[in-house]
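Slide 14.
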Amino acid sequence: MDTLVPVSAAAAPLLAGWSLHTAVLRRMLRQARQDPLTGLPGRKTFMASAGRDLRRRSGVVVLMDLDGFKAVNDTHGHAAGDTVLAAAGRCLAAWAESLGGTAARLGGDEFVATAFPAPTDDLPGRLRDLHFALSEPVWFRETELAVGASVGAFETTKFPSLALGRALRRAVSTDSGPSG
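Slide 15: predicted structure.
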């Protein structure tokens, strides 16, 4: 029993080190899966989880990018652009969550979401609401920053076995408003 105490005392720093190492690795993994600016999942995480969700049930895939974002970044700087991106991420995440889905940032000013509206939901109206919410000005250092949004949507109801990547390609919009 006398030798157990010194062995335990010697092992304590090793255990503490491994605990710290594990915590750091977990944090790094979480950051790798999450966009640091918006807090949304990144592309790889979204593609895996959304693909799984859409194989289980029909829904809507929404692809969105900001119109006028480059001008905001060029005129007001990257901090202003970051503020706009974070606001767009929060807006899209709230919209997707209200419809049982999830949102992610694909990169740059491009975002994606899934939604699982009830048959009684007015999807075109919901998409219009999203478009208007994303087009609301964002305040940065007492300056109103105006951007628009191009929103494209694709309902997987008619094509339940369609892969997520193909659904995203079909969700691309060429105008500055919701499409179906």
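Speaker note: The beta strands are 60-67, 103-107, 110-115, 138-140, 143-145, 148-155.
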